[in-house]
């Protein structure tokens, strides 16, 4: 529960107290009226548990003139009937029912959405035997909302059916509380605050209905104001760059509709507020609409730009991602808890931009950026929006794993996180967390030679997702480098920037996150993920330059540089991957600094022996904007790693140049599959400011490209 919601409750709870002025009036006989009363569930320890019923008084103050919003003062409590037994402590949860007096309002016609008045469909209820008694049903799953669902929820009052049990002929009525989708109740204290929180949230209506004719409508109006306190909300709308021969502003479909709602004010303000908006730039306006405290307009560039063959990406999609990210961040800076986002003609790209752009790793910071809930503006493209959300969540999972400090994200912890995530999204999964004894049984000596330098035990993570209807269909196998911290070993790295080596398991993070995402999307394909996980540290047991080890395939390796450890652990994992009769093998690794030098952060370098595999990867990257670039896998580089003095292979090339290519040539010695691709992601491991919709930090790239690649491969059973 947010602090803002709690304060809204504190301000509005006075109207929930038992303050009925009628209880102080005298009856026609001249004696004060005395009524049995029970403790107020909102203010005392009495709660309602699911499935239980209890009588709860909720009379309304008869006088509220001159009171300010949120400041209604309770009247003195009326005398209590001491013979009345107190209600037992009970918890109010969604799905429970309780009898309570609910004042009924008889007028609700002509109200607009969000106007703090009941829907015209709500009827006034009367009961001569029990004034204002009603049934309150807390159930978010009801499908009969009395208010536009876009408002988030409402109270619905309706007549109750006759009692067939021979009791009273008719109950007073039923009030159904439809919970807003963003409200979660997890503790008794939060449950007790549910009704006032709903009343105080985004135009949610407290259904104030008059109990009798002599309750002034002023009281209801004042209570409406006290309960209103709507949370501030932002709106992000897109605008295209004007054509050369057109001076008129070009809104998106949603932007144009909103401008009509505000009678053209948005277009007018844009025209006088400065020059036309450039691509990725924002402009903010306040007070245009009662539902949105602020509206951020973002520049989308040229409309219909399509695929830019020079840049190798879809320019429309990239412009939307960057613009929406900028707009959402501006709303977040205003500390608004909610923002609605214009789909901009591509809801998936808009969702990716919003959720990738707002992500920031702040788990260990006391001062965090304000939480903000993002929703689609309108109802067009809900499925595509949800798909974009899942894509972004997949990349953000990889970012979280890569950012996590190495003393916490150990091989064991990494495997546990992936197991938990995978099993939470699909039942068609299998997770094997292999220990050191298993690794030794598999004779993965190359992998073990790296792991032995650390006290942290190694883990070989093996995950299976069976999404295809044909269980015998050959799987696509992903392999990811999982060095959870890389000091370089005996060939130790410079201390400057070594902290970033907590992300040297980026290959494992991206391939595992891609499989989690594919499972969540229910992609019809069989996938296997393999991640050798360990640390590379110097110690008395660590590899030394000049050591020789024998890999799982029998080839011997001369280790001349202990900082070239990634290829040593991948060698055994790649050979093991062939045991699954794979359709194709794709490995990802933050393998070489040489790749960062060659391509920087513009693209992932791809080395492959398959033209079909390259085509699928390239086409996927054009859609996601997380690009790939093909690198050479010549025999020229193979000769540099096979010319070793002591063994079959050397773990570094003969010459300093072409380091990324010689590393790929080394891995090729452990592959026999005709469809194999090696992705060197060292250059895209981290983002400074190159990708506008990613904040500074670990990038989690190319997770979305891998997911898109898997999706395309599931639809193409012939090429590979």
Describe what you observe in this structure.
By secondary structure, the chain is α/β, with parallel strands linked by helices. The chain folds into 3 domains: 1-20 and 38-45 and 88-229, no CATH class; 233-380, 3-Layer(aba) Sandwich (Leucine Aminopeptidase, subunit E, domain 1), CATH 3.40.220; 389-715, Zn peptidases (Aminopeptidase, 3-Layer(aba) Sandwich). It is 29% helix and 17% strand. The longest helix has 22 residues, at 382-403. The radius of gyration is 32 Å and the shape is elongated. Mean pLDDT is 78; it is low at 5-50, 52-77 and 82-229.
In the CATH hierarchy, what is the class of the largest domain? Answer: Alpha Beta
Q: How does the major sheet shape up?
A: 9 strands, mixed
How many beta-strand elements? 26
Helix vs. strand class: alpha/beta
Share of helical residues: 25-40%
CATH architecture of the largest domain: 3-Layer(aba) Sandwich
Proportion of residues in extended strands: 15-25%
CATH superfamily of the largest domain: Zn peptidases
Give the CA-based shape: elongated
Please name the CATH topology of the largest domain.
Aminopeptidase
Alpha carbon gyration radius: 32 Å
Which regions contain 5 or more consecutive residues with pLDDT less than 50?
5-50, 52-77, 82-229
Number of helices: 19
Distance between termini?
A: 50 Å
Could you report the average pLDDT, rounded to the nearest whole number? 78
The total domain count is: 3
């Amino acid at each position: 529960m947010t602090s803002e919601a709690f304060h809204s409750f504190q301000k509005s709870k006075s109207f929930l107290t038992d303050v009925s002025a009628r209880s102080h009036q005298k009856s026609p006989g001249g004696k004060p009226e005395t009524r049995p009363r029970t403790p107020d569930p909102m203010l005392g320890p009495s709660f309602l548990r699911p499935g239980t019923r209890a009588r709860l008084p909720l009379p309304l103050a008869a006088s509220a003139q001159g009171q300010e919003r949120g400041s209604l003062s309770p009247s003195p409590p009326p005398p209590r009937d001491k013979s009345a037994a107190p209600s037992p402590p009970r918890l109010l949860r969604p799905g429970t029912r309780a009898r309570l007096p609910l004042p009924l309002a008889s007028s609700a016609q002509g109200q607009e959405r969000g106007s703090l008045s009941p829907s015209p469909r709500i009827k006034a209820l009367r009961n001569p035997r029990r004034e204002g008694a009603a049934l309150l049903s807390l159930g978010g799953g009801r499908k009969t909302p009395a208010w536009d669902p876009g408002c988030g929820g409402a109270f619905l009052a309706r007549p109750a059916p006759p009692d067939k049990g021979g009791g009273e002929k008719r109950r007073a009525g039923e009030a159904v509380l439809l919970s807003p989708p963003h409200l979660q109740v997890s503790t008794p204290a939060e449950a007790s605050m549910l009704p006032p929180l709903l009343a105080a949230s985004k135009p949610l209506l407290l259904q104030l209905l008059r109990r009798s004719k002599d309750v002034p409508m002023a009281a209801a109006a004042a209570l409406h104001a006290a309960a209103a306190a709507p949370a501030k909300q932002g709106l992000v709308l897109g605008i295209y760059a004007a054509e050369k021969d057109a001076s008129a502003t070009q809104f998106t479909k949603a932007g144009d509709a909103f401008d009509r709602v505000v009678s053209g004010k948005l277009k007018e303000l844009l025209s006088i507020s400065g020059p036309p908006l450039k691509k990725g730039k924002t402009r903010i306006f306040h007070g245009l609409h009662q539902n949105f405290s602020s509206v951020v307009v973002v520049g989308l560039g040229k409309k219909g730009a399509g695929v830019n063959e020079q840049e190798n990406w879809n320019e429309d999609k990239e412009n939307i991602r960057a613009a929406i990210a900028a707009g959402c961040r501006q709303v977040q800076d205003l500390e608004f808890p909610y923002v609605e986002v214009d789909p901009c003609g591509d809801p998936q790209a808009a969702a990716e931009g919003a959720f990738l752009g707002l992500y920031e790793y702040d788990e260990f910071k006391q001062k965090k950026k304000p939480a903000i809930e993002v929703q689609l503006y309108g109802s067009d493209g809900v499925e595509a929006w949800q798909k974009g959300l899942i894509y972004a969540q997949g990349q953000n999972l990889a970012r979280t794993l890569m950012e996590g400090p190495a003393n916490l994200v150990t091989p064991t912890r990494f495997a546990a996180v992936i197991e938990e995530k995978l099993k939470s999204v699909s039942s068609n999964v299998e997770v094997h967390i292999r220990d050191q004894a298993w690794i030794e049984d598999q004779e993965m000596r190359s992998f073990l030679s790296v792991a032995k330098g650390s006290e942290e035990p190694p883990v070989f993570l093996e995950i299976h997702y069976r999404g295809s209807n044909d269980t015998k269909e050959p799987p696509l196998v992903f392999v990811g480098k999982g060095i959870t911290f890389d000091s370089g070993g005996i060939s130790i790295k410079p201390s400057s920037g070594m902290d970033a080596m907590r992300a040297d398991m980026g290959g494992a993070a991206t391939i595992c996150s891609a499989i989690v995402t594919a499972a969540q999307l229910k992609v019809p394909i069989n996938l296997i993920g393999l991640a050798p996980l360990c640390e590379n540290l110097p110690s008395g047991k660590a590899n030394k330059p000049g050591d020789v080890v024998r890999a799982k395939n029998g080839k011997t390796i001369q280790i001349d540089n202990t900082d070239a450890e990634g290829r040593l652990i991948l060698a055994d994992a790649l050979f093991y991957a062939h045991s699954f009769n794979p359709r194709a093998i794709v490995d990802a690794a933050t393998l070489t600094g040489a790749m960062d030098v060659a391509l920087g952060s513009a693209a992932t370098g791809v080395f492959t022996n398959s033209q079909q595999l390259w085509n699928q990867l390239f086409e996927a990257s054009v859609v996601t904007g997380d690009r790939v670039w093909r690198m050479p896998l010549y025999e020229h580089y193979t000769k540099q790693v096979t010319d070793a003095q002591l063994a079959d292979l050397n773990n570094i090339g003969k010459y300093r140049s072409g380091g990324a290519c010689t590393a790929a040539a080394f891995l090729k010695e452990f592959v026999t599959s005709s469809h194999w691709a090696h992705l060197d992601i060292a250059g895209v491991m981290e983002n400074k400011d190159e990708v506008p919709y990613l904040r500074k930090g670990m990038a989690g790239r190319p997770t979305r490209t891998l997911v898109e690649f898997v999706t395309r491969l599931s639809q193409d059973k012939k090429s590979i």
